[in-house]
Write a structure and sequence with these properties.
It is a single chain. This protein is mainly beta and about 270 residues long. It is built from one helix and 18 strands. Strands 1, 2, 4, 5, 6, 7, 9, 14, 15, 16 and 18 form an eleven-stranded mixed β-sheet that branches. It has a seven-stranded antiparallel β-sheet with strand order 3-8-17-10-11-12-13, with no helix packed on it. The chain starts with a helix and ends with a strand.
Length: about 270
């Protein structure tokens, strides 16, 4: 296989279909260890950071958005929900503008969260070129060795297909070895759904509305290269535009603005 063909296959999708299951997921009944119900007037900066650090240089995966810092057009609280809005516009006056033709927002928890149960209730944007995500990363550490947990990704050219994926040093999309699953959810862009993660020392289960559709166990050799999920990660909410995957079939500018609405984020700390 030529290098060109191999690279095309690797960037065709960042998701995977090799760890699909159908198992129940049970939401804890206790009070969450961390939660944001988005009931205030604006984003709670004691809980969230706005990640803007690569605006000037450009974002990974050839994404084409500029991430704004607490700009109401891109991130706001509305009717008890967080709204992350991607817009077709240029921010030429911004000192960190890198030439992007779109704006959006990327929120990262200030606190790192580890083993436990996560539930994020959200309604997704649809439109060719849109790439919303709910995911976890130990920010500032080496990728992919430090690990990545993608609780929910959807690309707008394939609306209603929800991807759950894990990336590690040994198992990642650059090698074509990523582990994950996908499930059809036709109402993802019209209805709120509960995106869930059950993170344990020996397994990671990801699901929607009480049904797990991806299960990966800590049963592969390789140590931290296979299973770096032994320390807390930040939780990330963002809407990207374009990119190697999200922009694979172009960007439909007529669909902007596009919004991801998040009703709440809840986390119950698990046992070490």
């Amino acid at each position: 296989m030529s290098v060109t063909v191999l690279m095309a296959l690797q960037t065709a999708t960042l998701g995977a279909t090799n760890y699909k299951v159908d198992v129940p997921m049970t939401v804890p009944t206790a009070t969450p260890s961390f939660a944001d119900e988005f009931e205030g007037k604006k984003v709670d900066r004691t809980k969230w950071l706005f990640d803007t650090h690569r605006n000037k240089a450009g974002w990974h995966n050839n994404e084409r958005q500029y991430y704004a810092d607490e700009r109401r057009n891109n991130a706001r609280i509305e009717q008890g929900a967080l709204v992350i809005e991607a817009r077709k516009e240029q921010r030429r006056a911004a000192p960190d503008w890198g030439g992007q033709a779109y704006t959006s927002a990327k929120l990262v928890t200030r606190e790192r969260l580890g083993y436990g149960f996560y539930e994020i209730r959200a309604k997704l944007p649809c439109g060719r070129g849109i790439w919303p995500a709910i995911w976890m990363l130990p920010t500032g550490e080496k990728w992919p060795d430090a690990g990545e947990i993608d609780i929910m990704e959807m690309v707008g050219f394939d609306p209603g297909t929800i991807h759950a994926t894990l990336h590690t040093g040994a198992f990642n999309h650059a090698k074509g070895t990523q582990r994950g699953a996908q499930v059809k959810l036709p109402s993802a862009c019209t209805t709120f759904h509960n995106y869930q993660l059950d993170w344990r020392p020996d397994s990671i289960t990801i699901g929607i509305d009480g049904r797990g559709h991806m299960l990966v166990k800590n049963d592969q050799p390789g140590g931290a290269q296979a299973w770096p999920f032994t320390k807390p990660f930040e939780l990330i909410l963002n809407v990207a535009v374009g990119g190697d995957w999200g922009g694979q079939k172009g960007i439909d500018d007529a669909n902007f603005p596009q919004t991801m609405q998040v009703d709440y984020v809840r986390y119950w700390k698990g046992m070490e």
